[in-house]
Amino acid sequence: MILLKHEGFELGLAPGSGGTVTHLRHLGRDLLRPAKGNAPTEAAAFPMVPFSGRIAAGRFNWLGRHLHLEPNFPPEPHAIHGHGWTRPWSVDAVAPDQAELRYIHEPDSWPWMYRAEQVFELGPFGLALRLSITNLSEGAMPAGLGWHPYFAASGAEIEADTALIWETGANGLPSARRVPVGSEQLRRGQAVESLALDTPFETAGGPVVLRWPAQGKSLRILVSDTLRFLVVYTPPGEAYFCAEPVSHVPNMVNIAATHRETGLVVLAPGETLSGTIRLELIPEHTGARPVDTERAPAR
């Protein structure tokens, strides 16, 4: 495990177990649900490349080719969250408060070679993360990325600048895009334990704010424009929930909609898709001045 520290913040990373985060703490208090095992779904957070969410039955057509990806999360019948979360990552660099992880994918049922990178940096307000994926193959590749953090559900509230919602069926696949209504309208703030969502939203660019009023703790998630979609997962009866910044909606390669609507990106050979995420304690809980939220993590 890699351990990073900066001014009371501590971040644990497990490169060999899917490039996952094992914990993020401030002065000993957990900001993410700490890992409870070695599986990615037991981690505090994991990366999603070269796509996030589900691809229906792992099948899609691309430039005249019919592709079939193996289901990778039994008994889930779909391919889900890509490769990075289940593969070992190499360590490119480590400093006291920074680390760079890399994953190189060799073609298999996903017939493209690519390089994925995670650059973590702790700062005075929390964690900055830059995710990227570069097409190393000779043909155009569909691409996406995202981050899958877990948070404690008890007493939590979520507020997000949700502009549109994708209706999602029992199969976990989105179908129609519309304006959110009722408890879906996260702009008003909602108690997490009152929600039952596994739902992609398109945001209008504002931060996602997470609060635990009884603990006097509040976090905000700020992202670059690449990661304008947010998947909110609030499984009933579980002690956790997820607020996942992603670049596209699930099953984007099979949806009859524009790339702008789905977030699908096509990378030419050598091109890179990247996005930044900042997970910060809200200033009143740190006693420090706000940082520049547009500054990308340092390399």
Q: Can you tell me about this structure?
A:
The structure is a single chain. This protein is mainly beta and 299 residues long. 1% of the residues lie in helices and 47% in strands. A nine-stranded antiparallel beta sheet has the order 10-11-12-13-26-22-21-16-19, with no helix packed on it. The radius of gyration is 18 Å and the shape is globular. The two termini are 20 Å apart. Residues 285-299 have low confidence and may be disordered.
Topology:
Blueprint: E1 2-6, E2 9-14, E3 20-26, E4 29-30, E5 45-48, E6 54-55, E7 59-62, E8 65-68, E9 79-80, E10 90-95, E11 98-105, E12 114-123, E13 126-135, E14 141-143, E15 146-152, E16 157-159, E17 162-168, E18 174-178, E19 190-191, E20 198-203, E21 208-212, E22 217-223, E23 229-233, E24 240-246, H1 259-262, E25 265-267, E26 272-281
Antiparallel strand pairs: 1-2, 2-3, 3-4, 5-15, 6-9, 7-8, 10-11, 11-12, 12-13, 13-26, 14-25, 15-24, 16-19, 16-21, 17-18, 17-20, 20-23, 21-22, 22-26, 23-24
Provide keyphrases for this structure.
single chain; 299 residues; mainly beta; 1 helix; disordered C terminus
Helical segment tally? 1
Radius of gyration: 18 Å
Write down the secondary-structure element order.
EEEEEEEEEEEEEEEEEEEEEEEEHEE
Distance between the termini: 20 Å
Averaging pLDDT over every residue, what do you get? 93
Structural class by helix and strand composition: mainly beta
The side-by-side strand order for the widest beta sheet comes to 10-11-12-13-26-22-21-16-19
Summarize the main sheet: 9 strands, antiparallel
Oligomer: single chain
Helix content: under 10%
Shape: globular
Strand tally, please? Answer: 26
